[in-house]
Design a protein that fits this description.
53% helix; 2 strands
């Protein structure tokens, strides 16, 4: 399944473009702009599984760095600072990675 099966290609392009500058990433604004906030819990979980590149059931710090590329190949890599901030926001149980439920909570709270 491709990200564009769940989200509009135009919304993805706009959202990724809005955070093209280094150190500008804001996950709350991004999730809203990309249309994720309006999606059903099932669709949010599908997006999680697309971003979970190694299919471990978690999005680890290394995968978070490339989260924008998960939406579109044109996306930039997040900086270490942005990656750590995103991990801190999503990792509710402190295990150093984001599970599907934690991701869904992040989207819902955005």
């Amino acid at each position: 399944m491709a990200m564009t099966d769940l989200l509009s290609a135009e919304d993805i392009k706009k959202a990724v473009g809005a955070f093209a500058a280094a150190e500008s990433f804001n996950y709350k604004k991004f999730f809203e702009m990309v249309g994720l906030k309006k999606k059903s819990p099932e669709d949010v979980k599908k997006v999680f599984h697309i971003l979970d590149k190694d299919q471990s059931g978690f999005i680890e710090e290394e995968e978070l760095k490339f989260v924008l590329k998960g939406f579109t190949p044109e996306g930039r890599d997040l900086s270490d600072k942005e990656t750590k901030a995103l991990l801190a926001a999503g990792d509710k149980d402190g295990d150093g990675k984001i599970g599907a439920d934690e991701f869904a909570t992040m989207v819902a709270e955005s």
